[in-house]
């Protein structure tokens, strides 16, 4: 019976890692594939390689925390391990159904907390630290995004241009016996530097994803009375990541790549660097945290920061003088007129119609904050409060549901 549960646990772990690899590959290399800098197969290989590096080095700290520090390792019986992995896989299903980047890490920890509460072995001091990090990390990403979007982004955008190529960045001449690689002839020196930056940051995101997500797939098995060693757990997680990277990630890369090409590549690089750095630091400290939450918080901040350039801080702090107006066609109250509101894309949709056009030799000066009118900003809206509210609600709801639903299960099993 124990051997059967171990096999089932490994199967569920592979399923979780398979889904993580499929989704995380698109997040890490969507900009590179969408800009035709690398092919999908190359993106999968790079993700597996750098994901393994992140899991083998920094990721083992997170595995140790989730497998033996939140609750004692002895609590991870084969049945409990399968149950924790089940709730982790359920979080992936919920996020896919609602189209919200829910945190697999937070939900996995929530299931372990349910186990700890049912057994009376929860490390409350450690959980206080983890929950505090879950609150502080997104706020740090949000603030950095706001500052960059409001004060730095226009200057970066003015001097940094990225080209979206019609042909792949690396071309292969197959006329001879041995294919000869060459760089796209339309690429300028600035494009070469920018293209290398996109690929390097994609590798960095893969490293961060491996560091933070390996524990989600295998931590319960590592703590399950020694079913797997940490090294075996890392290898199992990376193999599962690879299965997802080379299969379902191809569709994810198409979707994310198309979306990201509509997102300015510069903005996606900023989001990747900020989100990936925060998660790498937390993973080094052994704190399980969500790469999706950090990157999405940066997107929210960046979008709001860019949209808020139409007003000074004093104007933002001053309530609008006009009260709500009645829309006679619908009978609804309108709090502001469309022509008065700075625009901005919804979450994950910054500057949908913005193209990375080449910069002219005499680029116009960047308007000061407060002098950039709404007409100068993307009218498709850079920030959608309703979408942000829905995403934050799901971030809080999914780990809470994991605790509430797993507690009675573990109370019954124990």
From TrEMBL:
Q: Which GO terms describe its biological process?
A: phosphate ion transmembrane transport
The main location class comes to: membrane
Protein's membrane topology: Multi-pass membrane protein
**GO cellular component terms attached to this protein's record:** membrane
Q: Which residues cross the membrane?
A: 44-63, 75-94, 100-118, 125-153, 192-212, 265-287, 391-413
Q: InterPro entries, per this entry?
A: Phos_transporter
- Any one GO molecular function term: phosphate transmembrane transporter activity
Where is the region Disordered? 339-377
Compositionally biased, Basic and acidic residues: which spans?
A: 350-362
Keywords attached to this Swiss-Prot or TrEMBL record, sorted alphabetically, are: Membrane, Phosphate transport, Transmembrane, Transmembrane helix, Transport
Record localization: Membrane
Known role:
Potential transporter for phosphate.
Family designation = Belongs to the inorganic phosphate transporter (PiT) (TC 2.A.20) family.
Q: State the protein's name.
A: Phosphate transporter
């Amino acid at each position: 019976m124990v051997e059967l549960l171990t096999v089932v646990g490994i199967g569920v772990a592979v399923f979780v890692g398979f889904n993580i690899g499929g989704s995380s590959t698109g997040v890490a290399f969507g900009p590179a594939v969408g800009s035709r800098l690398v092919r999908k197969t190359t993106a999968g290989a790079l993700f597996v390689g750098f994901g393994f590096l992140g899991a083998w080095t920094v990721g083992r700290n997170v595995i140790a925390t989730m497998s033996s520090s939140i609750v004692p390792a002895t609590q991870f019986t084969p049945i409990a391990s399968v149950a924790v992995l089940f709730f982790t896989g359920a979080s992936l299903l919920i996020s896919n159904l609602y189209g919200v980047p829910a945190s697999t890490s937070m939900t996995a920890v929530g299931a372990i907390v349910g186990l700890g509460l049912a057994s009376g072995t929860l490390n409350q001091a450690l959980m206080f630290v983890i929950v505090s990090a879950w609150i502080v990390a997104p706020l740090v990403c949000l603030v950095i995004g706001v500052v960059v979007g409001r004060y730095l982004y226009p200057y970066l955008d003015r001097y940094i241009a990225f080209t979206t190529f019609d042909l792949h960045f690396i071309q292969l001449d197959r006329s001879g016996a041995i294919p000869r690689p060459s760089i796209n002839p339309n690429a300028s020196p600035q494009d070469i530097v920018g293209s290398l930056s996109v690929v390097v940051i994609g590798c960095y995101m893969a490293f961060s994803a491996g560091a933070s997500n390996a524990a989600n797939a295998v931590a319960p098995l590592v703590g399950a009375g020694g079913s797997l060693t940490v090294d075996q757990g890392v290898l199992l997680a990376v193999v599962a990541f690879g299965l997802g990277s080379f299969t379902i990630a191809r569709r994810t890369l198409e979707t994310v790549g198309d979306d990201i090409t509509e997102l300015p590549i510069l903005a996606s690089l900023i989001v990747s660097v900020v989100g990936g750095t925060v998660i790498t630091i937390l993973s080094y400290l052994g704190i399980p945290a969500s790469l999706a939450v950090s990157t999405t918080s940066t997107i929210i901040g960046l979008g709001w920061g860019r949209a808020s350039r139409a007003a000074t801080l004093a104007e933002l702090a001053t309530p609008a003088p006009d009260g709500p107006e009645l829309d006679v066609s619908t009978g609804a109250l309108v709090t502001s007129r469309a022509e008065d509101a700075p625009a901005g894309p919804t979450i994950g949709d910054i500057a949908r119609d913005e193209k990375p056009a080449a910069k002219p030799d005499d680029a116009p000066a960047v308007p000061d904050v407060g002098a950039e009118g709404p007409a100068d900003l993307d009218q498709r809206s850079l920030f959608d409060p309703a979408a942000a509210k829905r995403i934050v609600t799901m971030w809080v709801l999914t780990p809470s549901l994991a605790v509430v639903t797993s507690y009675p299960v573990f109370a019954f099993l124990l």
